[in-house]
Design goal:
The structure holds 2 protein chains of 2 kinds.
Chain A lengths: L8 H31 L10 H40 L1 H45 L13 H12 L9 H20 L12
Chain B lengths: L1 H29 L6 H32 L10 H34 L5
The chains are: A mainly alpha, B mainly alpha.
């Protein structure tokens, strides 16, 4: 037994209207078809002449056939209205569709971010090695106050241990903060908010 | 689940067309001098079966809608997930552009540098 639901009057009356239309159209098809088959029976004795009776039967069959077609079209319209009502008001299926779509989009986003993160890690490793190679070669134009990334990491690791006697001058601290902030900027840039590429001083 | 119900309604539409087709075939057969009784029986059985199926299916759909319809508009959306996914794709595209620029820069530098023999 279906539980009683308190529907708004418009929805309830709409569904009752659908039921009524369905019953009326099915009844119309069956009755008109039955009457056509009955009219097809040839009777020997008629009140009017055979020609008149035949003409009357012919016209009646036309009208009943048109009624059957009208009822069929009305049923098609009812099916169309039901489809529309289903799409708009079938909340369980709408919720399922929304959750499925959300799940697919989130999995795509996670996959994309995972690949970007692995790419970032690989490029960071290569960059570290490249900078080490570049700053230790004769082509680099850096001065003693400008620390390469590898040296900055080494100094930061030594600062991490307490009581270390690493450089504490303001100039060195600024230089040390330079390359790490570039790396931080690169992480921010991955989010698509950066406006300029990383430039070496 | 929604697709199944919509597909069921599309099948109902085909059944309605079958009803009209069978009714027309029966009347056409009755108009002949000699009727084919087996054809008439087959068409009549199909006609009655289609009418019953249409009525039962549409009644079932209306009964289901009576149970689930609330009269309120649905307020769910996939906007946030779609936006997050779009931003992830933008991030990937941006990284691709930047790597492309880096690759082109490296190629230009390698072309300009004379070979060390």
């Amino acid at each position: 037994m279906a539980t009683q639901r308190v529907l708004p009057q418009s929805k309830e009356s709409l569904l009752q209207n659908y039921n009524k239309r369905l019953k009326d159209d099915i009844r119309s098809i069956l009755d008109n078809f039955t009457e056509i088959v009955k009219t097809a029976k040839i009777e020997d004795e008629t009140q009017v002449s055979r020609a008149t009776q035949a003409e009357q039967d012919h016209y009646e069959m036309h009208v009943r056939a048109a009624n059957i077609v009208r009822a069929g079209e009305s049923l098609m319209k009812l099916v169309s209205d039901l489809k529309q009502f289903l799409i708009l008001n079938d909340f369980p299926s709408v919720n399922d569709a929304i959750s499925l779509q959300n799940q697919q989009l989130r999995s795509l986003q996670d996959e994309c971010d995972k690949k970007l993160t692995s790419l970032r890690d690989e490029i960071a490793i290569d960059l570290f090695e490249l900078e080490e190679e570049y700053y230790s070669s004769s082509y680099s134009q850096w001065d003693s106050t400008d620390l390469p990334l590898c040296e900055a990491y080494r100094r930061r690791d030594s600062w991490a241990s307490p009581g270390s006697s690493c450089s504490s001058t303001q100039g060195d601290r600024e230089d040390v903060e330079g390359p790490p902030s570039q790396e931080t900027n690169s992480q921010h840039h991955l989010n698509g908010h950066g406006t300029s590429s990383i430039e070496k001083p | 689940m929604a697709n199944e119900r919509l597909r069921a309604l599309e099948e109902v539409e085909k059944e309605i067309a079958t009803i009209l087709q069978c009714a027309g075939n029966i009347v056409l057969e009755l108009s002949k001098d000699k009727h084919n009784a087996s054809l008439l029986d087959r068409q009549l059985v199909q006609f009655q079966g289609s009418v019953n199926r249409v009525e039962s299916e549409l009644s079932g759909q209306i009964r289901y809608l009576t149970q689930v319809a609330t009269g309120q508009p649905h307020e769910g959306s996939t906007y946030s997930a779609r936006k997050d996914c779009q931003m992830a794709l933008n991030r990937a595209e941006y990284a691709k552009v930047k790597l492309g620029e880096l690759g082109r820069t490296c190629e230009v530098m390698l072309e300009q540098q004379p070979p060390d023999w």
